[in-house]
Amino acid sequence: MTTVDAFLSATARPPGSTRKGPVTAARQRRTAIVYALACLVGALPLALGSPASLQAAGIGLWLPGAGFLAVGGWGPLLFPLTLAVFVASLVAWFWAGMVTAPLLVWLGSAALAGAIAPERIWAGGPWVAAACVAAVCAPFYRRAARQKREGFAKAVARQAFVPASLAEVQVQAAATPDAGAREMGTEELAALRYLLDRALQPIDAWGGFDIVDQFQPAALRYQLNHMGFALGLSQSAYTPNFHGYLGEAQRNLIQKYLLRKVWGYWVYESCWGNLNFTNWDPAARDNIMLTGWFGMHVGQYMLASGDRRYLEPGSLTFRLNELTAFVHDFNTLVGSVKANYDTAEFGLFACEPNWIYPICNHYGMAALAAQDALCGTDNVRRYLPRWTRMMDTEFTDESGSIIGLRSQHTGLQVPFPVGEAGYAPFENIFAPDRARELWAIARREIAPAMHPDKDGRPRISLPGAGLDAGNYSTGHTASFAGILMGAREFGDDDLAEAAQNSLDADCGREVTNGVRRYLAGSNLANANAALGSLLRTGDFGRAFSQPPAQETLDGPVLDKASYPEVLVGKAVSDGAGLDLVLHPGRGAGVQTLGLARLRPGARYTVSGAAVDAFTARWDGTADLDIMLEERTAVRVERTHS
Q: Which of 280, 458, 536, 565 sits CB 3.0–4.6 Å from 498 for a disulfide?
């Protein structure tokens, strides 16, 4: 079933019908049965005339803190307090996978009510508790019914516009940039420098990163991944034959990821979420927010650079302390994703214990695609059919949209903002037809927010205060960056221009010493804005699914250059020669370049440098001086004499 099929089938169902998949329906039935049994067990002491302590504890099974209503006296004052603590426990459950927290609060409050109960319960307590249960449940029921109606209405509206929108997307997305003509200009290099400045710090330095928490979207791991995506894309799309500081920056991000500061959250989530107090391997059970995202990141680096070091056993080792380490490599990370998919009843598997995020599972499937491109595996062929079937049946709502989040244990859906614009670039890696369908929906539903500003330039105005998930602040920087990424990936130039203009005008654009940043955005939002600035049609999909051409892998490389003195806007090879476009990053001056992967002892001609010819050393290297004052094109070509 495609995305279009999903919402077309939604319009064919009668009003009031549901979109529950069989696994979701079974989990929700189980949840309802368990709750009904808890209420029944809680009512038995009342029916049997049991001691007051049992009656109060039993009523406490109906609703967190409800047992205090039966205590009478000052006891009912504990009911709202317990509900507040229970809500906090739900936040902890959602925020950090603390599955035990709601159960401890609910059952603990029931036990406490029984412990403080007088000889006789308050006669009105059971009736008030039952009314409170109805008062709590009714709004959720009404909200679910309203969402179903609105979902079906949205599906009908989409049915009217998607065919025409999809036809436009097919035309726009078919264009492929001319690889030989591409180069990063001043704006792209300014965006890239934001990432390089942070990535080239010492491994244990975190200047310019947001350090808030390590459980949800502001976590360091997500910042590292998306910075890596942007740096990797700059290499695959513009500078495949530049190693030097670009390779060092990408490897630094990978090494930072292996620090316990980044992945240590899993020790806690394993304990309070999976009751696992002995094996804290972050690439074993669940945790696709690490294995999928990091696997995608490392795979992209190896694919773009030709560096295969992370295929070596032990190359990605997560060290807990001096005595304990979890030894991994790229293949074991991806192997964990596959092993979890093999046993996942929902077809997708969890990030934190219990919580299944479809967006994280998009990263997981992208990691499988990267392994296919690197190692010749057939992961996408094997896993994608069931993955898409379960996505469409278990994680798609009445409108045909992929939901944000589902509880693995209860089957309940929880709101989480992603949307078609967020999913589409990832599906372009492994399911481009589905990706275009998603973008056909996204672009038309964003279009009403586009308008010209006072100077006639296209802009986007989004409702509300906005949310930057990278640091939990308000603002639309992250949203504009996400729209920019999607629009660039699918060749939607008008929408991309509007998103870029909105970033520049509304998000505190600042360029200092040649480095661009958006002051109103988090580090994660800035990384995505940089990625959006670099992207052109299809770049994101190719960066994780297509290796460089063989002549790129065989040809000469720029292996050494000083940063930030030498900014590399282009570095491509036809297998024999090397084309470079360089910019000064810190004033004019003579710069020395280190070339490698030359033919040992061969003679090369040069244009754009201080010399017009040189002979490669016997190790295939050479040094080349250039006077760098402005944009400088350099051509190195092997002679045939």
A: 458
**How does residue 39 score in pLDDT terms, banded at 50, 70 and 90?**
very high
Nearest one of 637, 631, 635 to 566, comparing CA atoms: 631
- HSE (side-chain half, CA atoms, 13 Å) at 74: 1
- The whole-number pLDDT of residue 2 equals 54
Residue 585 DSSP class = S
Half-sphere exposure of 471 (CA within 13 A, CB side): 19
Q: Are 185 and 569 in contact (CB under 8 A)?
A: yes
Phi, psi dihedral angles at 584 (to 5 degrees): -75, 135
Those residues whose C-beta lies under 8 Å from the C-beta of residue 225, and which sit 6 or more positions away, are 257, 293, 294, 296, 297
> How large is the C-alpha radius of gyration of the chain?
28
What distance in Å separates the CA atoms of residue 368 and residue 383, rounded to the nearest whole number?
Answer: 9
Q: What is the DSSP letter of 387?
A: H
Rounded to an integer, what distance in angstroms lies between the CA atom of residue 76 and that of residue 277?
37
Backbone angles phi, psi at 576, to 5 degrees: -115, -40
Residue appearing with tokens 């949310």: 467
pLDDT in tens, 384-436: 999 999 999 999 999 999 999 999 999 999 888 889 999 999 999 999 999 99
Contacts of residue 228, defined as CB under 8 A and 6 or more positions apart, other chains included, come to 250, 253, 254, 297, 300, 301
CA angle 171, 175, 179 (to 5 degrees): 175
Longest pairwise C-alpha distance within the chain: 106
Going by C-alpha positions, the residue among 422, 460, 426, 416 that lies closest to residue 441 is 422
Q: Which residues contact 137 (CB under 8 A, 6 or more apart)?
A: none
CA-wise closest residue to 43 among 130, 160, 157: 130
Q: What is the pLDDT of residue 13?
A: 39
Distance separating alpha carbons of residues 240 and 232, to the nearest angstrom:
9
**pLDDT tens sequence across 232-262:** 999 999 999 999 999 999 999 999 999 999 9
| pLDDT at residue 10, rounded to an integer | 42
CB 118 within 8 A of CB 52: yes
Helix (H, G, I), strand (E, B) or coil at 121: coil
Angle at CA of residue 36, ends 55 and 410, nearest 5°: 125
| Phi-psi region at 140: left, alpha or beta (left = phi > 0; alpha = psi -120 to 50) | alpha
Cα of first residue to Cα of last residue in the chain, in angstroms, is 59
Q: Can you read off the two tokens belonging to residue 223?
A: 């910042």
Q: How many CB atoms lie within 10 A of CB 593?
A: 23
Nearest to 196 by CA among 467, 557, 586, 471: 586
Residue-wise pLDDT for 112-154, tens only, equals 999 999 999 999 999 999 999 999 999 999 998 999 999 999 9
- Tokens found for residue 599: 């033919």
| Percentages of the chain per state (helix, strand, coil), in multiples of 5 | 55, 10, 35
The residue type of 617 is R
